[in-house]
Amino acid sequence: MLPIRLDLSLPDWVARHVAAWPEHADDRARMHLVLGLAREHVERDGGGPFAAAVFAEGRVVAVGVNRVLPEQNSLLHAEVLAIMLAEKHFASHNLGAADLPRLELVSSCEPCAMCLGAILWSGLKRVVSGATRADAEQAGFDEGPVFPASHRYLEARGIELVHGVLREEAREVFDLYRARGGRLY
User: How far apart (Å, rounded) are the C-alpha atoms in residues 38 and 41?
Assistant: First the structure.
């Protein structure tokens, strides 16, 4: 029989982690939350060293941690999960809809090729990232075909991209993952 249902969930600790943080007034504060999620995910051997969150006016709407390995699903990147959960929260496939607050995605690393596509189609208008594509590739991850033209394409469609927020702290999560023997995929 073919599978007809796919159930996804985040680890139980994620909600407790997010609840412990106050509202996030700026990019650095929001990135601290995301990097805390990524670090805890690595420390709990939950999967890859990536985390992301969707914010509305400084408040967390949805979060994602990388679930590729535990769920055996190549699509379950942190950014994709955060976007999916935000769309569920707002009951909308368009996170840029006029009746929604201004939403932004904060990611521990520059989004890979797949996640850039998800961002484009989601309607998000702002993306903040920590580690760079080069940092992820130096750690052994394949980020796919992402080029300067990829970023220009998104920017031409009204998506603001902010790179390198707390980059060194984001790179430290990759170092921790490697030191703990994390699997590359």
Answer: 5
Name residue, tokens 């007034």: 25
What whole-number distance in Å separates Cα of residue 39 and Cα of residue 45?
10
pLDDT (tens digit per residue) in 116-164: 999 999 999 999 999 999 999 999 998 999 999 999 999 999 999 999 9
| Type of residue numbered 86 | A
Cβ(64)–Cβ(71) below 8 Å: no
The amino acid occupying position 67 is R
* Residue type, position 46, single letter: G
Distance CA 54, CA 63 (A): 6
Amino acid 146 reads V
- The secondary structure of residue 109, as a DSSP letter, is E
Active site residues per annotation: 79
DSSP H stretches of helix in 91-179: 113-122, 133-138, 148-156, 167-179
Tell me the pLDDT tens digit for each residue of 68-119. Answer: 999 999 999 999 999 999 999 999 999 999 999 999 999 999 999 999 999 9
